[in-house]
Amino acid sequence: MHELSLAHSVMEIVGREMEKYPSRHLKSIELTIGTHAGVETEAFRTAIQAVMRSSLWPDAEAVIVTVAAEAQCIACGARFAPDGYIPQCPKCGSAMCGIVAGNEFRVSALTLHDA
Description:
The chain is 26% helix and 34% strand. The chain has 115 residues and is an alpha+beta fold. Strand 3 and strand 4 (79-80) form a beta hairpin. The model has no long low-confidence stretch (mean pLDDT 95).
């Protein structure tokens, strides 16, 4: 399950950021995960909660924001919701399309409070 290694990586990022604010406590971590990011959201949610429980911030909350996938046709410029990982334009039928949203995986925000 690569979601567990992703959760550990997220907590490493959080740890580096928290070093900048030694007198603050972590209240929540906001994560943005696209539907085409290759991450099973519920498995990741379980993994990040488990990793957070054994971290310096066991009471912090993980907030996951899901971004729907969106594709754009290179041939005609149409934007659409893809129905698979290899999108085909519903307007012109071209397979020359790219994912323009929904493939992100990032720590979007940390909410801190005073000690």
